[in-house]
Specification:
By secondary structure, this protein is of the alpha+beta class. It contains 8 helices and 9 strands. A 7-stranded antiparallel sheet has the order 2-3-4-8-7-6-5.
Length: about 325
């Protein structure tokens, strides 16, 4: 019995690896590669178009791969080849699509294909072993579902520290690379959730709460010697901010492309650095209050405040 069950392991592994390679690597690269490779930020329409193409392609491909799996497994004297073949494809697709996105960011890129491969191998093999042990097909299918749930939960548990470690590394690298004046939000209820940039420009993403509602702010710092506050008709207005980072009144530009969209406040930090703050939800920030939460800092102090343990590594 064990030898017969193990004889099915080779086609199960090959089928799962093929499915993961097609749906987890090749297809996303074909659909999303050109979008993500462009230097500009992907437009929502581009991402929506890619998703619209992805869904029917996965459905049609799953039907074909299920037929292939059933035909191949049938030649290996696998019990209930129809159930096992369909379960293999379904489990692998669920593993590839299962959300592992976490508050600390996404885990390593290889985590989703690994979950898809593990699901595509362990779920059908658990069904085979259960049937060989004398269980009914329905009970074996239930065990397969249980194995899939355990795998997804286990990968989410593993993904959390990996995602947090990746986030810390990205923030630390971006902050230390930037050559301009840094700022940080002093309010402890606001958390730094991401940082990216280079020596001349950095974008810090914060999440916080105002009146019990979770909102966000994107803070961009840019080295620019030539910037001056300038109004743009119907888009941006210059006004005097009652309290700048120095505690003194300062000129700022409030820009909003159209009503109901997030606005951006831009002002100069004494020196060469320009500070832009963009709200993620329209009309959610009190600009004077938020600017009052900011203080000038350097890379080491920012990292020490946000990730105390990271400064020791």
């Amino acid at each position: 019995m064990e030898r017969a069950a193990l004889s099915a392991l080779l086609p199960v592994v090959v089928l799962s690896a093929t499915l993961v390679a097609l749906f987890g690597i090749v297809l996303p690269l074909l659909l999303l590669g050109p979008v993500l490779a462009s230097r500009s930020r992907p437009q929502p329409q581009q991402l929506l178009f890619a998703v619209v193409l992805l869904i029917p392609t996965v459905v049609i491909g799953s039907v074909f791969l299920s037929w292939w799996a059933v035909a191949w497994l049938g030649r290996y004297d696998v019990p209930a080849p129809n159930l096992v073949g369909i379960a293999l494809v379904g489990a692998a697709v669920v593993g590839l699509m299962a959300p592992l996105r976490l508050p600390g960011g996404s885990g390593p890129f290889w985590l989703k294909p690994l979950l898809g491969l593990a699901s595509g191998v362990l779920v059908p093999m658990s069904i085979i072993w259960s049937i060989r042990a004398g269980l009914h097909e329905v009970a074996a299918a239930g065990i397969g579902v249980l194995v899939l749930v355990v795998l997804v939960v286990a990968f989410r548990i593993v993904a959390k520290p990996l995602a947090q470690r990746r986030q810390v590394k990205q923030v630390r690298t971006a902050v230390r690379r930037f050559q301009g004046q840094l700022v940080d939000v002093t309010d402890e209820s606001w958390s730094l959730v991401g940082a990216r940039g280079d020596a001349d420009r950095i974008v810090l993403t914060y999440n916080g709460a105002v009146d019990g509602k979770q909102i966000g702010a994107v803070v961009m710092l840019k080295r620019d010697m030539d910037w001056v506050p300038k109004a743009a008709e119907n888009e941006a207005a210059v006004f005097e901010l009652a309290r700048g980072l120095s505690g003194q009144p300062t000129e700022a530009v409030l820009a909003q492309k159209q009503l109901g969209t997030p606005a951006t406040l831009t002002l100069r930090i004494p020196g060469t650095t320009i500070l832009s703050i963009r709200e993620t939800v329209p009309d959610s920030l009190s600009w004077v209050e938020f600017v009052g939460k900011l203080e000038l800092t350097d890379a080491d102090d920012l990292i020490e405040r946000r990730y105390p343990s990271a400064t020791q590594s």
